[in-house]
Amino acid sequence: MPPNTCIILFCLLTSLSPLIRATFNLTLPHQHPNPEAVVQEVQRRLNVSISRRQMLSTTTTNNGGSKDQLSCLTGNPIDDCWRCDPNWANNRQRLADCAIGFGHAALGGKGGQFYVVTDSSDHDPANPTPGTLRYGVIQSEPLWIIFSGNMLIKLKHELIVNSFKTIDGRGANIQITGGGCITLQYISNVIIHNIHVSHCVPSGNTMIRSTPTHVGHRGISDGDGISIFNSHDLWIDHCSLSYCTDGLIDAIMGSTGITISNSYFAHHNEVMLLGHDDKYLPDSGMQVTIAFNHFGVGLVQRMPRCRRGYIHVVNNDFTEWKMYAIGGSANPTINSQGNRYTAPVDPDAKEVTKRVDTNEKDWTDWNWRTDGDIMVNGAFFVPSGQGLTAQYTKASSVEPKSAALITQLTSNSGVFGDPRDTSVSISYPGVNGVGTSTGGSGSDGGSGSSSGDGGNFFGMIFGSSAPPPPSSSTTTTILLSLSISLSLYITTNYGTLLSLPLLSSSLLL
User: Fold this and answer.
1) Measured distance CA(454)–CA(461) in Å, rounded
2) How far is CA 250 from CA 68, 261, 274, 307, 383, in A?
3) Is 136 a domain residue?
4) Which residues make beta-bridge pairs with 354?
5) CA-to-CA distance for 88 and 300, rounded, in angstroms?
6) Statement: the pTM of the whole predicted model exceeds 0.90
7) pLDDT at position 401
8) Which residues form the signal peptide (predicted)?
9) What 3-state class would DSSP assign to 441?
10) If DSSP codes are grouped into helix, strand and coil, which group holds residue 215?
């Protein structure tokens, strides 16, 4: 190799070393550098809320304190953050300060204007009508989206959500169903709260608008309830999900910084997939918190099914599975703390965990641990790797004493006010087709009035400090281009002297 070429390559490699090192280490740009610190903060927040409730309970008993305040404090740190405010409807954006776990930084539409959905129709996904949900979610600026009343929104195709949006269904019965359902792709900072999502089916091969200035062709979707693709800083809270063709929630292709909390899952086969493919290395940076959810009737498997990444499963109530509750492949870290696992009657399905398509000799060093979990009806969790040692004593120093309070902590899971489905009849639309929706409110028009004019649907301005939509870093893009060019140059001229991995498109965000 000519000396000048060596010098140029050395300078390029030196300047690119942080980026290349991050690529080799499979670190996503928005991955938390210390996941154990996030776990400890979740436990700290939880124990603070539990202690506050216990202290108030003692005060109320001894001194005749406020029973109303005691009734709103459950010990659940998310709900206790905002539900005790009697004026919460006028302080909706306070919700954005209440997230915990890996998705705690999700801003949603905080600081943006309110957008009121008044029209439940979805006639033209390429040119959505002002006043519809689709029109609101594609806007470029941060928006806090609320609803004028109860609505059944039957989507024609995927609802492609833009960054910095909150879909806030509190105070109304909002049901989303139909083609594709909710898609979060190449975006960030989205909060979805208090929404029913069900009976989602594949759709596509059509033009769909994703921003005010971009309409693109979409292929056939999978029929997920909520599909997450290469996105970060997301929070799904108090949703009820069931009866979808594919997954209820799937997160793949370099997604990270996600919290799924206080939700109710029922009547489904493959509930939740975290990770695209065993060979897709960027998913090693996926970090997801699954907290205070109720996995209810008619579920089979994948609560969740993990590939790579770090998954914190904390204080959930697993009341039914047919095959297994938590599964994984490709060496994910699974930290199970303070959950209640109730095994089915089937003696062959008592195990909570399943290493999917992997020999035992290959998974013995995977870090799967159980800490303070409650096992019911013969359920058992098979730990492995560092989960078998005392190495995580420090990480568990804030003991998950909350396991005994699972019923209380998950009592409001799902959409507020929903009755719990205790039906014993089970069908799995993902296998046998989608059934007919039950309990929907209204017709295609919902309770909102159709409005085709260009009126002001943005409501009042909450504040002027809204964060700007995310933009690509010019410096990062240049470095990535240089890295790719360097890889191609060396491969072309010097064979296999250096082989850089294909850079994930997530690094361009």
Assistant:
1) 18
2) 38, 15, 6, 12, 24
3) no
4) 327
5) 37
6) no
7) 56
8) 1-22
9) coil
10) strand
Enumerate residues 6+ apart whose C-beta is below 8 A from 254. Answer: 28, 230, 282, 283, 285, 286, 504, 505, 506
The single-letter code of the amino acid at 134 is: R
Residue with tokens 């010019």: 474
Report the half-sphere exposure of 93 (CA within 13 A, side-chain side).
21
Show the DSSP H helices in 127-257 as ranges. 133-137
Please give the Cα distance from 190 to 232 (Å, whole number). Answer: 9
Q: What is the DSSP string of 179-203?
A: ES-EEEES-EEEEEES-EEEEEE--
Give the pLDDT of residue 61. 57
How would you classify residue 442: left for phi > 0, otherwise alpha for psi between -120 and 50, otherwise beta? left
Domain assignment of residue 338, yes or no: no
The token duo for 47 is 């124990």
Contact 113/135 with Cβ under 8 angstroms? no
Residue reference for tokens 């200035």: 213
Q: What is the pLDDT of residue 387?
A: 74
483 is a domain residue: yes
> Which residues are known to be catalytic?
302
Question: Which residues lie across from 306 on neighbouring strands?
Answer: 274, 328
pLDDT of residue 14: 42
**Which of 88, 91, 49, 96 is closest to 70 using CA atoms?**
49
Q: Which residues contact 155 (CB under 8 A, 6 or more apart)?
A: 122, 134, 176, 177, 178, 179, 180, 181, 203
Regions of the chain where pLDDT drops below 50: 9-26, 390-398, 424-509
Name 357's Cβ contacts closer than 8 Å, sequence gap at least 6: 329
Question: Whole domain around residue 495: which residue ranges?
Answer: 3-30+476-508
User: Around 425, how many Cα atoms within 13 Å sit in the side-chain half-sphere?
Assistant: 2
Q: Where are the beta strands (DSSP E) in 352-420?
A: 353-355, 368-371, 374-376
CA distances to 126, 201, 239, 248 from 169, in Å: 24, 22, 9, 18
CA-CA distance, 56 to 299, in Å (whole number)? 37
pLDDT digits (tens, 9 = 90+) for 335-377: 999 999 999 999 999 999 999 999 999 999 999 999 999 999 9
Asked, for residue 399, whether it belongs to a domain, the answer is no
Domain count of the chain?
Answer: 1
